[in-house]
Amino acid sequence: xxxIPVPRRLRKAFRLIERVFRCFAGVIAKYHCNxxxxxxxxxxxxxxxxxxxxxxxxxxxCGAEMGAHKxxxxxxxxxxxxxxxxxxxxxxxxxxxLVLLEAxxxxxxxxxxxxxxxxxxxxxxxxQEHYNNHYIEGNIGRxxxxxxVPTQIKDHTVPEGxxxxxSLSTPVATVDITSTEQQELGYMPCRDDYEREYDNEAESxxxxxxxxxxxxxxxxxxxKLAQVDMYSRRLRERMRRKGLARDYRLLEQFCHAGRPASxxxxxxxxxxxxxxxxxxxxxxxxIFSQFQSAxxxxxxxxxxxxxxxxxxxxxxxxxxxxxxxxKLDECSEFDVARHRREKRKEVKKKSAPASSVHKKxxxxxxxxxxxxxxVDTTLSEQGDTREDSKEATDITSLPGYELLSDKERKLxxxxxxxxxxxxxxxxxxxxxxxxxxxxxxxxxxxxAGMDRSHCRRILNHFANSGWISAT
Length: 471
Hints:
Subcellular location: Nucleus
Distance between the termini: 87 Å
Domain SANT: 87-139
Number of helices: 17
CATH topology of the domain at 8-144: Wheat Germ Agglutinin (Isolectin 2), domain 1
Pfam family, one: Tri-helical_Ada2b_C
Organism: Rhipicephalus pulchellus
GO molecular function, one term: transcription coactivator activity
Helix content: 40-55%
CATH architecture of the domain at 8-144: 2-Layer Sandwich
């Protein structure tokens, strides 16, 4: 096993322990018999007259003599590490303590399994407990480790709201495709990578590139740096394309094209243009999608549609103002009168000979009506001049058509009223509904000149939509 590095403060503890054992150097140090040259592991006999002369018990019992040493010299019996250093109940011998410290220095602090192998009589748990109790939590540890240990840990986390804060990073959106489709496309969603990336050969520019040669001059270094710059630009283009595909969910749209999209799928919830003009606008603005996110691009299209609607509404209000109309009620009466007049003209054209019939758009009739000015005198008549013609009029070109929902468009098309007239009637009815909610008992007002059956159909639509009460 790889040894664990000993901390700096443990090294200081080792130095202190070495000083303690140095006091017992004559006892714990390894000795050998001067006569038989064998290592002395137990009790040894030290000559009191000859300097540095030691004998083992076997040679001493035989009365060995060597050189100036005689068997009649005085002697001392010395125990070589078989005594305990720490007080009871510790039963560790001095030589075991020495082996323990040497093993920890060799194998590292915490590697108790390897340390215990150097002490066959001790288990791994015993070695760990003995070292912690006597060398860390005991007197040696208290003398070595200061009470106020300065922390060595430095906080590298970014504060909240910083440039690299995790709270500001947006997680990558999951791609709603099956595992089979992922394998067919070679797409790895967890890494957001492909088996074959865009410009897959870009890495060939730097695959064989090496720098730092002894014979390189400035020209070669500049050439290699240019290659690295070329590679980084191609890599940025690859990341840009991957970001566009992820942001606009191109993978999901490609996979869902051949199967019905689920209701929960974000692709199925995406807004689709309802008219040909909206489709043309999206096609024209598609080139700008590479410079915007999907949300920004969708917001841009919505703003352009809203601008178009506001321009149409402003144009309609200017037409009312040119005819001297300044109130919404008058606008509805004006639209109803114009619509009835246009229907009478259509009926007359159909009843006339085929040679004299010339179909003209509604806008032409409205312009002639504007040139006359004022409001038709038939506005005072209340629903008694119902038209014989039941054919629906094309209202797609009339102002305010963009402001209606699909159901409202079908309703206006079926009963043959203009979108502006419908919007005016809707405004009046909703105002009456607000008054009724405040306690008023007034009934809904019908616009002058508007067929009551048409008004009832519109009121039924409002009631079904939940805008007014059914009573």
